[in-house]
C-alpha cells in the first residue's frame, strides 16, 4: 500500500522547494532512490535537467511540468497551483501585468502564503553591485550628490549614466531620501526577503566574487584582506558554521566610533570541495 506523502505543496511558496522536499522524503523512505532514478521515472535521458531545475538554473518545460504533476500525484487544485508556481518563475520581471495575474491566482489557491511581485527596480538594486555601494557612500561625511563625483569614488569604474540611474532608483525605493534641505541621505530602510529574487542574489554574489578576485592584483595588500582555509567538518555542524559567519557580519559593523571614510564589501564563501552523500546518489 502506497504511503501518503507528508510533504504538502501548499506549504511551499515556490515549486523548487516542494520538489526538493518530495525528493528528500522519497530518499528517506527508499535509500536506493536517487536523482537518476527519479529522472528515469520522468522519462528523462539523464538527471542533468532535473539537477539544473532543482538548483534554479532552468525551469521545466510545459511537457515536463505535466509529467511531474502526474508523478507527484497532485490533485486538480494542487496541479493548478504547481503550474502557476512554474509560470511565475518563467515570467519576465518587466511583464508586470502577467505577473500580477499569476500572483492573484496563487493567492486564491493558497491564501496562507504571501506572494509579492518583484519590480525591475528591486531586481536591479540587488543584482548590480554599484547600487549598494552608492547607498553606503551617501552615509559618509563629505558625500556629494554630483554623479561625476560619485563616479570617481567607485571602483571599478561605472558609466556616468548608470550612476545617475542608480541614484534615482535608490531614491524611488526609499533606500535614499531627501532631508529638509533637499540633500540626499542614507536611510535605515531595508529590503525584506520577499523583495529579493533568488536570481538577483546569485548575480550579485557572482559579481562580488569576481570583484574580490580582481582586487587581488588591483588593490594593495594593506587595503584588503583575502584569505581562506580548507578544513573538514561534520555536515550536521554546517548550521553552526553558517551562524558564525552571520555573527561576523554584525561584528564588522561595530568597529568603533570613528567617522567612516570608505566603503568596503565583505563576501564570505563557505562551500564543499568534496561531494556530499546526497550528491553521490
Descriptive key words:
single chain, 281 residues, mainly alpha, two-stranded antiparallel sheet, 13 helices, 2 strands, 2% strand
Report on this model:
By secondary structure, the protein is mainly alpha-helical. It has 13 helices and two strands; from the N terminus they run ααααααααααββααα. The chain has helices spanning 15-29, 35-41, 48-54, 62-72, 76-90, 96-109, 120-127, 129-137, 147-153, 160-172, 198-218, 238-252, 277-280; strands at 176-178, 184-186. Strand 1 and strand 2 form a beta hairpin. Helix 5 runs antiparallel to helix 6, helix 7 crosses helix 8 (129-137) and helix 7 (120-127) runs parallel beside helix 11.
Helix content: 40-55%
- Residue-averaged pLDDT: 87
Low-confidence runs of at least 5 consecutive residues: none
Distance between the termini: 26 Å
Question: Can you write the helix and strand succession as a string?
Answer: HHHHHHHHHHEEHHH
Structural Rg = 23 Å
Across the major sheet, the strand order is 1-2
- Cα shape: globular
Structural class by secondary-structure content? mainly alpha
Number of helices: 13
Work out the strand percent: under 5%
Amino acid at each position: 500500500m502506497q504511503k501518503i506523502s507528508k510533504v504538502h505543496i501548499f506549504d511551499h511558496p515556490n515549486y523548487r522547494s516542494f520538489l526538493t522536499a518530495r525528493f528528500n522524503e522519497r530518499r528517506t523512505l527508499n535509500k536506493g532512490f536517487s536523482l537518476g532514478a527519479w529522472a528515469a521515472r520522468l522519462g528523462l535521458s539523464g538527471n542533468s535537467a532535473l539537477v539544473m531545475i532543482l538548483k534554479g538554473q532552468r525551469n521545466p518545460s510545459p511537457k515536463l511540468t505535466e509529467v511531474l504533476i502526474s508523478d507527484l500525484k497532485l490533485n486538480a487544485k494542487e496541479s493548478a497551483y504547481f503550474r502557476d508556481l512554474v509560470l511565475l518563475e518563467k515570467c519576465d520581471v518587466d511583464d508586470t501585468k502577467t505577473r500580477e495575474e499569476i500572483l492573484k491566482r496563487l493567492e486564491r489557491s493558497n491564501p496562507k502564503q504571501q506572494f509579492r511581485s518583484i519590480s525591475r527596480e528591486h531586481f536591479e538594486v540587488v543584482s548590480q553591485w554599484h547600487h549598494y555601494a552608492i547607498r553606503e557612500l551617501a552615509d559618509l561625511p563629505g558625500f556629494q550628490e554630483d554623479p561625476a563625483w560619485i563616479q570617481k569614488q567607485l571602483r571599478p569604474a561605472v558609466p556616468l549614466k548608470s550612476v545617475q540611474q542608480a541614484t534615482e532608483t535608490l531614491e524611488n525605493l526609499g533606500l535614499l531620501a531627501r532631508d529638509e534641505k533637499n540633500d540626499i541621505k542614507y536611510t535605515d530602510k531595508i529590503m525584506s526577503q520577499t523583495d529579493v529574487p533568488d536570481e538577483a542574489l546569485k548575480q550579485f554574489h557572482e559579481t562580488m566574487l569576481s570583484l574580490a578576485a580582481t582586487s587581488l592584483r588591483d588593490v594593495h595588500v594593506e587595503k584588503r584582506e583575502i584569505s581562506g582555509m580548507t578544513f573538514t567538518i561534520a555536515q550536521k555542524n554546517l548550521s553552526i558554521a553558517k551562524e558564525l559567519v552571520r555573527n561576523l557580519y554584525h561584528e564588522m559593523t561595530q568597529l568603533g566610533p570613528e567617522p567612516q571614510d570608505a566603503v568596503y564589501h565583505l563576501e564570505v564563501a563557505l562551500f564543499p570541495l568534496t561531494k556530499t552523500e546526497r550528491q553521490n546518489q
